[in-house]
TrEMBL record:
Annotated PROSITE patterns: GP_PDE
Protein name: GP-PDE domain-containing protein
GO annotation (BP), single: lipid metabolic process
Transmembrane domains' residue ranges: none
Organism (species): Fumia xinanensis
GP-PDE domain segment(s): 2-241
Length: 243
């Protein structure tokens, strides 16, 4: 059965990457939640946010790594979406993990790898996931394969998936996943074909695609045989996959 992961939570109905969005995704019956984690180098805080440059979701300016855990919580990340979410703050990773302890749901933790954090981000994220005993309850994804190599070497009991946004018809990225014991590959859905998925499955690699939202695209992914759909529209995905 194809899994449905809510991209940044239920972001059509709630502010993205907020506790409200994660709660709503669970209420909608999503199989999992996808979210983004940054390491704040000023104090080592692990926070959930998508953009490296602040401002789209909050009244703040600057690169996210210019903030620490206290200062980044001074801004609402919900008010621009709707005034009724004005109290939503940038969540700490621990905040989500505490909630998942009480309200279980599978997590797709995307590790954001920046120039200033790429050599330091893997261990603190994984130590926290280890602390919360998340090995069989999450997959860790990243655009930087070196970060995933480090995770797989140090935490082989965790699942990892390589994110990318490019044509992989020559299967070089997929072959890398196979050779480096990655559990999944996370391609942009537009590049995925049935033959590509079959090749991955033949070598024990899952294919989790982002972010098909239309009925047509979700049907095509179903026909391709993908393992999970990371989507902005959970309800549409549920409706199509129930056909």
């Amino acid at each position: 059965m194809i899994q449905i992961y809510a991209h940044r939570g239920a972001n059509l109905e709630r502010p993205e990457n907020t506790m409200a969005a994660f709660k709503r995704a669970r209420e909608l019956g999503a199989d999992g939640i996808e979210f983004d984690v940054y390491l704040l180098i000023k104090d080592g805080s692990l926070v959930i946010h998508h953009d490296v440059n602040m401002g789209r979701c909050e009244d703040a300016q600057g690169r996210i790594t210019e903030f620490d855990g206290k200062s980044i919580r001074a801004f609402s990340v919900g008010e621009k979406f709707s005034p009724k979410y004005k109290d939503e703050k940038v969540p700490f990773l621990s905040e989500l993990l505490d909630d998942v302890r009480e309200n279980p749901i599978f997590l797709n933790c995307e590790v954001e790898s920046l120039v200033e954090t790429k050599d330091h981000v893997a261990v603190p994220v994984m130590e926290m996931l280890e602390q919360y005993q998340m090995a069989d309850k999450c997959i860790v994804s990243c655009f930087n394969e070196d970060v995933l190599d480090e995770i797989k070497d140090k935490y082989p009991h965790f699942k990892v998936g390589w994110l990318f946004d490019a044509d992989d018809s020559d299967k070089k990225r997929l072959d890398y996943c196979i050779e480096h014991r990655f559990d999944a590959i996370h391609p942009n859905y537009i590049y995925v074909t049935p033959e590509y998925v079959q090749y991955a499955h033949d070598h024990g690699v899952h294919v989790n695609v982002w972010t098909p939202d239309s009925e047509e695209d979700i049907r095509r992914m179903r026909a391709c045989g993908v393992d999970a759909i990371i989507t902005n529209d959970v309800l549409t995905a549920q409706s199509v996959l129930a056909e």
